[in-house]
Amino acid sequence: xxxxxxxxxxxxxxxxxxxxxxxxxxxxxxxxxxxxxxxxxxxxxxxxxxxxxxxxxxxxxxxxxxxxxxxxxxxxxxxxx
Amino acid sequence: xxxxxxxxxxxxxxxxxxxxxxxxxxxxxxxxxxxxxxxxxxxxxxxxxxxxxxxxxxxxxxxxxxxxxxxxxxxxxxxxxxxxxxxxxxxxxxxxxxxxxxxxxxxxxxxxxxxxxxxxxxxxxxxxxxxxxxxxxxxxxxxxxxxxxxxxxxxxxxxxxxxxxxxxxxxxxxxxxxxxxxxxxxxxxxxxxxxxxxxxxxxxxxxxxxxxxxxxxxxxxxxxxxxxxxxxxxxxxxxxxxxxxxxxxxxxxxxxxxxxxxxxxxxxxxxxxxxxx
Lengths: 81, 277
Description:
The structure holds 2 protein chains of 2 kinds. By secondary structure, chain A is α+β, with helices and mostly antiparallel strands. Chain A has helices at 22-25, 53-57, 72-80; strands at 10-12, 32-34, 40-42, 63-65. In chain A, the strands form 2 sheets. Chain A has a two-stranded antiparallel ribbon with strand order 1-4. In chain A, strands 2-3 form a two-stranded antiparallel sheet. By secondary structure, chain B is of the alpha/beta class. Chain B has one domain (2-276): Thiamin diphosphate (ThDP)-binding fold, Pyr/PP domains (Rossmann fold), CATH 3.40.50. Chain B has helices at residues 2-11, 27-42, 77-87, 99-105, 107-116, 161-168, 181-193, 207-213, 219-229, 233-236, 261-276, and strands spanning 49-53, 68-71, 92-98, 121-126, 129-130, 136-137, 172-177, 198-203, 230-232, 248-255. An 8-stranded mixed β-sheet of chain B has the order 2-1-3-4-8-7-10-9, with helices on both faces. Chain B starts with a helix and ends with a helix. The chains are: A alpha+beta, B alpha/beta.
């Protein structure tokens, strides 16, 4: 984690995901893609522009986008809370 | 943006069965997210809110959220909500209904609640069909579409819920789609803060019934349809009749101030008290 570059973290909560494909279809930066079963996964995390539309449009509250200005270490710490 | 999901989870009843009952990609889930975000932004506490619903897919919504909730009979959600509001005017009463619930079975309750201007918020999810019962046509099914009860195409004209609400005298009417989720947030926020009967029509999709029968594709394709056919009120002002054909307006359709039923009722009580002295 030595680099200054901040990355985005996208969490997909598979237990609640129904593989509708909305997050993948409307992602403006084409970060997400669908696997063989249709479930989304993060293909290009570096492309994420942090718009949060996948999170807003997910009908099942199964996707979370963390802000880019936070480092991955901070996010990990936040999740432990 | 983990705050958004954290916020949603704050208001969910985690002892209920998740993932929720709606089909994959259903717009009601998106609308539920917008509802929770709007309630949180308005600063209401969980105990102040009463969420009333009728029957149908939308009727399942109060099960999942941790407010005071009431799951009532078909079409009568507004009647129950009126009772709740009159009994305890301090409560913020929000009614969630489907199109069949609001303007078919509960059509009479709907127009008269709007006419009386009782301080309620009605959120109507319009997916143009009765989804839960097997895809029968509803009053908002457009002309020429196929449903299980109009398999040779539908021959009736559709209701416009928002225009009906405006005509019936509702002081606040807004229309949004589940594709425009942020607009939905702001419309709901405005509706909750409005004193009087506020209506928010949410254009949603039923890809399981309506989409399948009319070959409109998956949830994604139906949301793309919403994106392509929705025009904001501001934009529509500069468009011709011809350009607006087959399109629908989204945004705040009407926002005016009218005397509220409960305030007027209080005045009558005061009048009666002074007269009897």
